[in-house]
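name: query_chain
kind: protein
chains: 1
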Amino acid sequence: MSLTDLAATIAARADADPDTSWTARLLANPDKAAEKFGEEAVEAIIEAVKGDRAALTAEAADALYHLLVMCAARDVSLADIEAELAKRQSQSGISEKASRP
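structure:
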């Protein structure tokens, strides 16, 4: 599944019943969506430090899903994120970071 496919699945579940859809439940509660992304990001960090490739892969997938849900809950689309990345493509990461306020 691509990130585009995942974003489309998340969007399709926005109108689902929060009692039966985890995605719908998180979309209805942006603060909870942010909390879950934070938890998954920390779990990915732990697995990266441990060096367990399979566990890191699973946690990275969880983190990406929860990142897209968190963003969707605040009306930020994958296309918005891709556009921001495209703006940064022509400069080095060090230069881009230095240009931020």
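note: The chain has a mean pLDDT of 94.
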